[in-house]
């Protein structure tokens, strides 16, 4: 297979002939391949780690291991510093959120609720001022609509008139 035949972005591993011969010789010596290992790490004294991703691991009968793969150097102190910086940033965000003036937030919510309730009362007051003709409507229907929607009697009667006595549609329009 030539390089031109390999698709872009494909992960290809090329095994040199010497490495392949060494693996074949190890298998002839009775070494057993271990398939379930996904990462091997070696720790040095200066907090440096050598890591091998997707290694080929062989175990001898005596309990020793032979590992094939590309070792990459990882610095634990650098990793620790990055983790501490991320933790400090998260703590700053939490402090900023906690330091919001809760009284201002609560008071603004209360003001919004008061405005909404005043608007509802003014709309109800407008409906209560005008008398709705209830001829042809049953009192029990008006009561049911009032109970289900928590609205005034005039509003319930008006909705029932608009929907020609249909209780369900009147309730839906007021909900």
What topology emerges from the helices and strands here?
Layout: H1 17-28, E1 32-34, E2 39-43, E3 48-53, E4 56-59, E5 65-68, E6 71-75, H2 76-98, H3 102-129, H4 139-149, H5 153-162, H6 167-174
Antiparallel strand pairs: 1-4, 2-3, 3-6, 4-5
N-to-C SSE string, H for helix and E for strand: HEEEEEEHHHHH
CATH topology of one domain: Ubiquitin Ligase Nedd4, Chain: W
Q: What overall form do the CA principal axes indicate?
A: elongated
- CATH class of one domain equals Mainly Beta
Main location: cytoplasm
Organism: Pichia inconspicua
Keywords: Protein transport, Transport
InterPro entries: EGD2/NACA0like, NAC-like_UBA, NAC_A/B_dom_sf, Nas_poly-pep-assoc_cplx_dom
Q: Can you give a write-up of this model?
A:
This protein is α+β, with helices and mostly antiparallel strands and 175 residues long. Among the domains are: 17-77, Ubiquitin Ligase Nedd4, Chain: W, CATH 2.20.70.30; 139-174, no CATH class. The chain has six helices and six strands. The strands form two sheets. Strands 1-4-5 form a three-stranded antiparallel β-sheet, with no helix packed on it. A three-stranded antiparallel β-sheet has the order 2-3-6. A hairpin with a 4-residue loop joins strand 2 (39-43) and strand 3. The longest helix has 28 residues, at 102-129. The relative contact order is 0.06. Residues 117-138 are annotated as: Disordered. This is Nascent polypeptide-associated complex subunit alpha. Pfam families: NAC (PF01849), UBA_HYPK (PF19026). Residues 125-138 have a biased composition (Acidic residues). Keywords: Protein transport, Transport.
